Every structure is written in C-alpha cells, then in structure tokens.
Amino acid sequence: MTHPSRTFTKPLRAVWLACDPNSVVTVGLKRTLEERARVRIGRGGPAGESSSVILCLEDAEGATEEVKRLKEENPEATILVFGSGLALPLAQAALRAGARGYIHAGMRPEHIVRAVEVAAEGEIVAPRKLMEYLLAQEEHPDVDALSARQREILGFVV
Predict the structure, then answer these.
(1) Cα 152 from chain centroid?
(2) Which of 23, 74, 79, 144 is most buried, taking the most CB atoms under 10 A from its CB?
(3) Helix (H, G, I), strand (E, B) or coil at 48
(4) Cα atoms in the Cβ-side hemisphere of radius 13 Å centred on 113
C-alpha cells in the first residue's frame, strides 16, 4: 500500500460509514477510525460533508450501482468498499465503478486506517491478491465469434 513512514497531508475530516448501524462490524469500524476522524453511520448520509465514505457490501451484485450512486451524491468524497472478507469479485466491481479502494474484515485495524488515509490522498487501495485475480480473469477475445470478413480484416491488421 504505502511506506510506513509516509506522512499524510490530507486529514480525515469525516468518514461516513454507509453500513448497517446495528452491525458489530460497523461498531468496530467506528472505533477503529474515530481517533483520526469524525465518524458518521447510516445509509442516508449527509451529502457534501464526508471526506471519505466506506460502503459496506456483501457481494458484487449491485456494487456498481451503489458506488456510482454514492459518487453522484458525494462527488468530492473518497469512496471505499468494505467487505466481510477478501471478496475479489466485489473488489474488482467496486474499483471498476470508481471506488478508490477495497478493505475487508480480515484486515488489521491499523491497516484499515492506513488504507483510508492512502485513498484520501487519491491513491487506489486494493488487496495484493486482486492483481493475481485480475490476471487470472483476463478475458481473451473469441475470434470464432467474428464473421469471415471480420477475421479476414483482422488477418490484414495482424
């Protein structure tokens, strides 16, 4: 993610936890972050106030729409997605939708704080395993799906 001695110039003014307010995970996130920022909880959050938004999601389904909705409502906010574990399809969907990071319950509290700080600086925060996952998921074009003329043109291009 970043070098441990790095200093952060952009303070975490506020972090909005777009999570279930009754979840033990939400309480843990709040306690983890409240030493560095004012933490608010709830799905309806105050637009324009948060410097960072942590969106709690369980799976990749609907992640794109949720991240895009939050970006529209809070264009200046840094959005991170929080999952219950290392859900690589969720991380991929969130980052493709414009989230600046993916964090999960398996991370140590100090790593979560650092991830939020790094994302607030404008950098992308993602699990190292995500790169391996993305490389394994690389899509190869289906040349057989091309028409005879398209294959002929592709042959000329190559």
Answers:
(1) 42
(2) 79
(3) coil
(4) 17
